Automatic annotation (TrEMBL):
Species whose genome carries this gene: Sphingobium cyanobacteriorum
SUPFAM superfamilies reported in the protein's UniProt record: AttH-like (SSF159245)
Superkingdom of origin: Bacteria
Lineage: Bacteria, Pseudomonadati, Pseudomonadota, Alphaproteobacteria, Sphingomonadales
Name recorded for this polypeptide: AttH domain-containing protein
Amino acid sequence: MKDFPRDEKSYFNSRLMSLCVFLLSFLNRVFTVLGLGLPQSGRNHGSASHGGGRLDGRENMGQAKKVLADLAIGKSRAIDPADEDLHSPNREDLNWAETSWWAFANADGDIGGWFYLLTRRNLGVASLGIYIWDGTSANPWDFPYSKHFQHIPLAADFSLLNGSFPEIGAALGVREPLRSYWLRYSDTPHLEFELDFEALVMPQPIGVGESTGHLDQLLWAKGELRFEGRQVRIDGPACRDRTWSTRPEANAGQYNSYAWGATRNGGFHAMMLETPEGQLLFSAGFIWRDGAVVPIEKVKRTVEARGPDGHAIRVRMEMTDREGRVVNLVGSSRSTAALEAFTGSLCWCSVMDWQAEDGPIYRGEDHEGWPHTLLRQARLTGKLPGLGEL
C-alpha cells in the first residue's frame, strides 16, 4: 500500500474555527454579495409553492450561521470512504446538488481538459460539461471539443462508485475509495478517452459537516485522448474536487480564485473568496512538501500580467502554512479556457506551470471566477477596484 503524506486533523478544525469567527463578522455583507439562497429548515423548504426560494433576512442569517457552525470543532469531520458516493439529502430540498470535477492536461500543457459533473438527486437530473482545449482560443466554440449536457436523466440508483450515462457515452467510478478512480467517454468520432487517476495525497476536507461538504485532492492521471485524428497521451498531475450542499441555480457567486499544482513529490492547493474591493473574506488550502500536508495560514495571489481578453497569464502566489513553511511561486499560463462553471459566472481556467523560488516546477491550473456583472464592469471601466487594471 502506498504511503501518503501526513494528514493534519487540524486542517479543518483549528483553521476553520478561526475562519468561522472571521466570516461571521462579515456575514451580513458576504451573504448579500454572494446572493445565496440558503435552505429553510423543517418541512416547508423546497415545497412546490416556494420552489426552493430565498429566505427573508432573519431566516437567511440563521441558516447561514448554521452552515458556518458546521465548520466548527465538534461538527467537522474527516473525509470518509462513504463520501465518495452521493449523499442522502433532505428530499424536499430541490436545490440540493453534488459535484464531481476533474482536471487534467498533457505533458506540454497546451492541451487541457475538464470533466465536470453536477447531480441534482431530488430533481432526477444531472449536468455534465466535457471540455478539451488546445491553446488556440479560450472560446468554447473554438475548442477541439466542448459539450455541456444540461438535463441528463439521473437514475434513482445512480452511484459515483460506478456510474454511467449511456445516453451520452460517459462513465466514472472508484477503484479504491480515496485513492484510485477512472473516467470514460465516447463520442465517436469527435472525442474518446480513458483516464485513470491515482492519489498523490489523501482528499483534503473543507467544511465537511452536517449540511455541506467539500474536498480537494491532488492526483496523477494516465490515459489517452483521441480527437481530430490526434492521439494525446495523458501522464501527469491532475486534480479533483467534490461538493455536496444546497446550491440554488440563481447564484452567480463572488469573485474567487482557485489554484493548484503538483509533481510526483509535492504540490499545493489554494482557494480564495474576495469582495469587489479586493478584501479577502475566505481562504483555504494546503502545502504538500517533505511528506507532510499542512494547511495554509496565509495566502496572497497577485495577477502580474493579463492577456488582451483579460485572462491571467502571469500569477504570483505567496503562501505560508501553519508550520511556518513558505512557498512562493510564479505561474505562467500554457493554455486557457473560458468556461461557465456557475450560472451567470465566467471561469478563466488556465493550465499553468508554477515555478517555485526554491526550484520545483509544479504543473497545475489557475482559475478566476468572475460574476458576469463584475466582468462587464471591468470591461467598461478598464479595471476592477482592488484587482488592478485589465
